[in-house]
Amino acid sequence: SLADRLQETIKKIRGKGKVSEADVKQMTREVRLALLEADVNFKVVKDLINRIKERAIGQEVLKSLTPGQQVIKVVQEELTELMGGEQSKINLSPKPPTVVMLVGLQGAGKTTTTGKLANFVRKQHNKCPLLVAGDVYRPAAIKQLETLGQQLTMPVFSMGDKESPVTIAKEAVAKAKEDHNDIVFIDTAGRLHVDENLMEELEQIKSVTKPDEIFLVVDAMTGQDAVNVAESFNEHLGLTGVILTKLDGDTRGGAALSVKAVTGTPIKFVGLGEKLDALEAFHPERMASRILGMGDVLTLIEKAQATVDEDKAKEMEKKMRTMSFTFDDFLEQLGQVRTMGPLEDLLAMMPGANKMKGMKNLQVDDKKIGQIEAIIRSMTPKEKAEPDIINASRKKRIAVGSGTSIQEVNRLLKQFKDMKKMMKQMMGSGKGKKKKNPFN
Ligand code: GDP
Ligand code: MG
User: Which intervals hold domain SRP54-type proteins GTP-binding (predicted)?
Assistant: First the structure.
């Protein structure tokens, strides 16, 4: 698979202290093959590879301290860029109702996504949606949307299957105004293949409802075909976004990589299951990392780099190595970790995070950190530097001072001891490797 191949290549290059031009060429060749195999559009691959080569052979990488890591970062950034840079939001109309039209081939997930999206904007944006049953051709399509409406306790506008979808859409928007529904989702009919009649009808719906968003719903499993579909819908309707469904399945990922590049239309949301809450905003960066098979480790690295001052990190590393790491240092590290965001999030981004969470003495809980800080602040300078002197009476004083209990003080002392032991191991095994934060 794409991920496997890329990972193989990455493994080879990751730890390299020096990357030669030949290394870069070898790697880009692998990346190129992997992408083509994953059904990514040929021209897209060619452009991408050229950009990667240019950057990777350039100063940016060869001059950096960790060229292997840097090459991977370049690939990741370029993949992210390819998928559309930053994530996008729904374009809400200043004059409600906002009209959102969902189009796509049969079975792509339009009707399901209509429900998911309405659920999403109601929760995230506090909106009051109206669902519109605009598929009058497929048997039971109206009923399907009505059922979703019931599950969501959300109104569904339908006029049966005798009226034209154009009339239905027009009436629905009028009804939304009347009932003060501030966003309208129009579910439309699909075909097995793109055809002119379908396009004409969709164009008419567009012209009578003036949608703020026209989302193409694409099944991620359809690979390269998804790109062709997107291209032709875009030509006719001028899409404003793409929603990639069924990413929970065993997809090849090629669609995600090419859709934006080919149509100029960003992927805005992804469907991750059949349930009504299985919809997420699309994060190109996360997707790129996932494709590279590294969890969000690069995001983590960047965050750590931005937060932890380089010199301080070096100093800390020295302290860890010489085992002169004190509770004061610990406190400072906690502060730095905190500014990076909730620990849960940080941990979730790391490969092998699950294993870590299971480690009994390294449980991370944001609330606990406040407690830990209080305990450390209740220690005297000497106690912080030499925790071994903390006897029973000192423990009692610290517990009272921090508003915790002796057990909690004991637990922290034990954790600190374990942590030092772990640092010693890390430092011993990873000679020369950089360890920038205590969880890395
Ligand atoms: P439509 O013809 O485009 O309206 O497609 P539907 O909304 O009826 O969906 C077709 C099938 O795909 C249904 O069985 C849905 O439950 C399923 N489906 C839609 N989105 C997703 C998704 O993100 N993940 C999974 N696993 N199934 C989905
Ligand atoms: Mg449908």
Answer: 266-279
Among 323, 421, 411, smallest CA distance to 371 is for 411
| 191 annotated to bind ligand | yes
Instruction: Evaluate: CB of 245 within 6 angstroms of ligand 1.
Output: yes
Report the relative pairing of strands 213-219 and 98-103 from DSSP bridges.
Answer: parallel
Query: 391 is written with which tokens?
Result: 């006897």
Please, which residues have CB within 8 angstroms of residue 153's CB and are 6 or more apart in sequence?
Answer: none
Which helix (H) or strand (E) segment holds residue 359: the answer is none
- Cβ atoms within 10 Å, residue 71: 29
Distances (CA, A) of 218 to 10, 229, 270, 286, 392: 30, 8, 10, 19, 65
28: closest CA among 43, 16, 45?
45
Rounded to whole angstroms, the Cα distance separating 244 from 226 reads: 9
- What six digits make up the tokens of 418? 């374990």
The residue assigned the tokens 């905003």 is 281
Ligand nearest to the backbone CA of 117: 1
First and final C-alpha spacing in the chain? 28
Would you list the DSSP string of 169-216?
HHHHHHHHHHHT--EEEEEE---SS--HHHHHHHHHHHHHH--SEEEE
Is-above-0.90 flag for pTM? Answer: no
pLDDT tens digits, residue range 224-277?
A: 778 888 889 999 999 999 999 998 876 656 667 777 777 788 889 989 899 999
